[in-house]
Amino acid sequence: MARQLKLGAVLMGVGGPGQHDTWQHPEIPGDASVDINWYIARARQAEDALFDLVFIVDSQFITPDSPPHYLNRLEPLTLLSAVAVSTTHIGLVGTLTTSYNTPFNLARRLASLDLISGGRAGWNVVATGDGGTAANYSRDEHFDYATRYGRALESVRVCQGLWDSYEDDAFPRDAATGRFLDPDRQHRLDHDGEYFQVRGPLNIVRSKQGQPVIFQAGDSDEGRDLGASVGEGIFTHAPTVEHGLAFAKDIRERAGAKGRNPEHIVIMPGVSPVVADTDEEARAIEEERRLGKDFAKTLAQFGRPFGWHDFSRYDLDAPFPELATWARTASAPRPRRSSRSPAPRTSRCARPCTGSPPPTPRLTGSALTVANRIQEWFEAGALDGLNVHVTVPSEFARFTGEVLPILRERGIVRSAYEADTLRGNLGIPVPRNVHTVAREQSARALA
Length: 447
What we know:
CATH superfamily of the largest domain: Luciferase-like domain
Radius of gyration: 22 Å
Strand order of the largest sheet: 1-2-3-4-7-8-9-12
Helix content: 25-40%
CATH class of the largest domain: Alpha Beta
CATH topology of the largest domain: TIM Barrel
Distance between the termini: 37 Å
Order of helices and strands: EHEHHEHEHEEEHEHEEHHHEHEHHH
Shape: globular
C-alpha cells in the first residue's frame, strides 16, 4: 500500500495555549471543555473525514493564568470511553502521566479503553514537567529530570508486560467441561525494577490490536530517547521542512540503534490550519488572532515549562535570562529551540506560546495553498501525519471539506478506512504476546 498521510484531531474545547480568546467564539459553548456532547460531535466530524485518531491532552496543575481549556476539562480516559461507544473507527489517544500514576493502574485503565473501543486506544506517555503538580500528589518537590524519564520508560515496559498477562487462547470458556481459564496461558510479571515492583498478572485480556499504541512527545535528548525506545507515534513540532527532516532522521536512527524497525514509527507534528478563500484573507485572519492575544497571560503561561518562573520581571527586549536553579527540574531546562540565535530577546522566546510565529508547519492560505504545503512536507519525509488542533467547528470543516478532498484526489490521504483498529489504520503491526512467542520457540527447539 502506498504511503498515506495520517491525521489526528486535537480536541481543545474552549482553547489551549495561545488561544485565550477562543472561548468567546459564537460557535463554542462556554462549557465545551466539560461537555461530552461537544467532544462526541467533534470526534464524529473527524471520523467522517477519515481521521486516524482524536487526541486529548492533559495536565493536573493550574493557575488563574492557565488557558481556558486547562482551567476546566474532563479526565482523558473517562472522556474517551464515552467517545468510544459513539464512534466506530477513529483512534482514541489520551495523555497520562507516568510521574503521578502507577503502572498497574495505567495498564488496567488503558486496556479497558482498548476493549471498550474494540482496539482503538492509544497512550500519550508524558513525564510531567509541571513542578506544581507535585503539591497535588502529597509531594514537597517534583521529581528531578532523570527520575521522571526513568519512571516513564520503566512504566511503559511494565505496562507492556502486564498487557501480555493473558495469551490469546487463555479463556476456553468451555461450559461442557466447566473450564473457564487455561492457567498455563496466564502469566505473572514479577517485575522488580528501580522505581516499581509489580507482581501481576493484569486482570484483563488483550484487545484485537494486541496493546494500546504508545505515543510520545518529548523533544529533549531524554525525550527523544524515550520516543525512540517505546514510541510508535511521535507528537512533535517543526518550524521548517529542514527541522522536520532532521527530527525524523534522528528519531529513526535512535530507534534503529535500539533494535526497533524505524519504519514502524509515525511522526505527527501539531498544526493549526487557517483556511480562507484567498491567501491574503487567511493571513489577515492569522494576524488578527495574533494581535488579539493577551500577552500578559501568554507570558505567564510561558513560565510553565520552567517551573512557573515569572518572566514578567525581566525587560522583554533584553536577552533571554541565563538558566538557573529554577530550571533544573523543569520540563524545558534547555530553551535552545527558542533561543539558538545570538542574544535572543525574552519576548521573542515567549512568542511561540501565542502561536505567532507558529513552531509548526504554517498552514495558512487558500485550500489549494494549504494542500500544496502539506504535500510538500509529506513528500519530503518531514512528517508522516498531522495533529490538527480543533476548536471552532466551521474552521475545522473548512479543512476537512476543502483541503482534504484535494489531498484525497492526489492519493495522499485515504478514501476509506483500511481497518477498525488504531494500529491497523496507522499501519503499525500488532505486537505478538511474548509468552506465546517463547512457547512456540521452545516447541520448535524440541522438535
